[in-house]
# Entry
Amino acid sequence: MNICEHPNKQSKKMKNKLFTLIIVFATLISCAKKTDLENALELAGDNRAELEKVLLHYSKNPADSLKLLAAEFLIKNMVYHHTFVNQKLDTYYKELIKLNNDTGKAVNCKNKYDSLSLKYKIEPKELKIKFDIQSIKADYLIKNIDHAINNWYNNPWTRHLSFPDFCEYVLPYRISNENIEDWREKLAIKYLKKIEWINNIDDSRNSTFWVSNWLNDTLINRGFNIVLYNKPCNLKLPPSALENIKMGPCEDYALSTIYLMRACGIPVCIDFVPHWGKRSMGHAWNVLFDETGRETPFLGGNTTPGFVHKAGEAIAKVYRITYSYQDQSLFHRKKEENIPALFNNPFIKDVTSKYIDAIDVEINLIRNTDKKFAYLAVFDNENWRPIQWGKIEGKKTVIFKSMGKNCIYMPLIFEDGLYIPSGLPFYINYKNEIIEIRPSVQAKQTLVIDRKYPIKRNIYLASRRVIGCEIIASNNANFKDSIIAGTIFRDPKFNWDTLRSGSDQKYRYWKIKGNKKNKCSVAEFQFIRDNKNITDTTKLKTNILLSDKPKAGNLFDSNKLSYVDFRKDSNEWICVDFGKPVSVDYFRYLPRNDDNNIVAGDSYELMMWSETGWISLIKCKAKSNKLVLRNVPSGGLYLLHNNTKGKEERIFTYENGKQVWW
# Structure
């Protein structure tokens, strides 16, 4: 599953196809009392000779004892590693690499990426599974092992690394289900040259931290553009298609960084949140294992090791992608039970406690089930998404390990591919108390609501940037003898606001000018006389950046989500030529916003969570920028739909007269 997007039908079909085939491996392993290495060799089938050739190669010389152990590590953990193959994929990768190597700007690439994916779209049934254990060649493994160990031995910044950490975080030839390539030597030749000068610095040559920082600078210079685009199928891109990426999800940047760093002997892995605790989607990033023993999060090309990454986000669960088989995984324990795709993977492990003060939670389900496992889910703005599993003891008791605090959780059972709500929503407060959300039909309350989605930091700061915007008037096209008719000084907090004109004189040219000190963002602007909008956009002039000139009309297009950015220190402006002198009583303006405020005239529907799902409580049309909803059961978990327009919405409770977002 792509960490930064929701699972789709195609990915589910691929998962079903994959794990139908994998069950054969699992059955053979569970029935055989052999070592992991012996099991792997037996499952290799006709490819066994290739793997034994690797072991024999390193068995001849005692000096190769560590290389032999490295080979055994790779082979015994290889069993479930795989990719999917299709001839169209090879052509797609070649064209994608060509597109990435183009010098065009990233902003122009998304449509090209999507068109390329549509051109080579592959249905799950067209993909053929290819297991590493049955296909990988001896020469490839030997070359990979030799190069990885030589880097470990010879680079001063990797000598702190233990052998187990080397095996997990440097040695592996693959990360996920990407097509296997001979990437290590190629990337090492290219990037080790960029940091060879570090050997001249006495206080840095032994520092994995500083070497990784300098390598990451090359990725930052490449550019960083988080954009979700369509792909032909749900496979991770190979190293060659990631080296010069113009844009992509966070996961692609994290994968690209791993290949580069590991090629230079630097121990790096990927950690991820399948879904954030208080908003939609998830995230993936890198972790550096530095010379002090610290595990330092960063995202290659975006943030450097040591810089706080994603501060303030609500974390419910964090997992780590590994090469080694995890015998604590649900995949290992599930036996015949059908489980969600996230957990149907033996190569992830729970590392939540490395990031937050997590606690174990014991709950009782509200329904009986013959399933062995239950799940905790968080809300992704549309549905409940599982992020942790627990074994059901008896019929109803479940312990969920290492859960984050201050996030709303929903207990679920997974039956026939569907998630069945099996408990009340709850959260863990900072006193480690479990607070269930149970609405009271007897106790009613009045809800006064002004939004359907929480105010996010980025959009709030953008909204405030309307402050300082000036309106200048003149009867001269060059604005000689002009006056300042008004300066916006009030934070309108996402809503329309007004500013009285400082002059009752008539002027032909009226200029909206950005703030001198800061970037200024405005969504809509109107000139009002006698309570009527007299704005005339037939003659617009502007000096804003040439590429943004078409956006000048955004200021007058009646679209709350489009906007104009006036750059800092650029003296940018948009001029309205009325064709003749006119007087203006006041100006009406809307800052950049997310259009999630209550809008008069829009139709809304208040939902409340019951034991079986969402139920509709109230449908109404807004008469102002607030909804007053009476006789609502108190203590519930609510969701507000705008049935007129929009998509963003978020669950909330109502406490002390205010919405509390979760």
